[in-house]
Amino acid sequence: MASDKASNSNPKVAEAEKLVKKADKLTKLSFTKWFPDWTAATPLYEQAANAFKLAKMPEAAKIAYEKAATGQERSSSPWSAGKHLESAGGLARELGNFDEVIDLYKRASELYVQCGKVQPAADALDKGARAVEDVKPDAAVRMYIDACALLEEDGRDQMAFDSYRSAASIYIKLNRYEDAATVFLRWGQAADKCKAVQSQCKAYLSAIIVYLFADNFNLADASYNDCSQMDSFFKSDQNHCAVQLLSAYRQGRPDEIKHVVSTSSVIPHLDHMVIRLAKQLPSGKVTAIVDETGHNELDEDDLR
């Protein structure tokens, strides 16, 4: 990458620097200049930003895009301001300034919301999250979930599915399985609202599998009891798979757990990250669960 201390022998760079100086002069207040002229300055910043970017000078380009965004915002053009902030966010990612990346994409999203563009607002959060998820996973998850919230509030629940998937994937990579299961449950609720039955059932089964992989049978069982209240899930093949898995765990039969996973017709259609966990079940020691009388809670008929 060329340094932002690129030689002024490049005429386009020299011209861009002149444009910035001229624009700065137009926006700087003085005793004789009481009001900044953003209308005249903004296109100068935009030209300079594009020139710096082409010249591989990301720091200078980022600053110019931010100033151009300020100009567009002052001119009541939040859409154009948001686009400039996204450009600045991409350059901040290139520079490794991840806190800036988060801030710039969030600000872009807020501007899109101002002009009623919910989908671009959510997309901006998704872009920012993808840019930082390897180095700031917690911040990335929050951005993905915020994107989901924006879409759901606007009645676009189905458009949130990819963001939920990305958030769950991060949690699984971090071995935060219970958090991942919670995301799957929220995904299932969103799918229920927009009548996306297959996605709903897959999400609920995924949550149960993730809880089981985390060796938390109680949460898996409680989630199953809640999800099975939904008629669409109760009648599904995914529900049948969940029943078989939970029954095998109650019986304390690791071989049966493996058999359920290997012969299931629905597990192979889940997201690959969940399939990978399912193939490793049981992940811990499996002990039969007995009731207060000392008998197994389920008999053999429950496994059929």
Automatic annotation (TrEMBL):
<protein>
    <recommendedName>
        <fullName>Gamma-soluble NSF attachment protein</fullName>
    </recommendedName>
</protein>
<comment type="similarity">
    <text>Belongs to the SNAP family.</text>
</comment>
<keyword id="KW-0472">Membrane</keyword>
<keyword id="KW-0813">Transport</keyword>
<dbReference type="Pfam" id="PF14938">
    <property type="entry name" value="SNAP"/>
</dbReference>
<dbReference type="InterPro" id="IPR011990">
    <property type="entry name" value="TPR-like_helical_dom_sf"/>
</dbReference>
<keyword id="KW-0931">ER-Golgi transport</keyword>
<keyword id="KW-0653">Protein transport</keyword>
<dbReference type="InterPro" id="IPR000744">
    <property type="entry name" value="NSF_attach"/>
</dbReference>
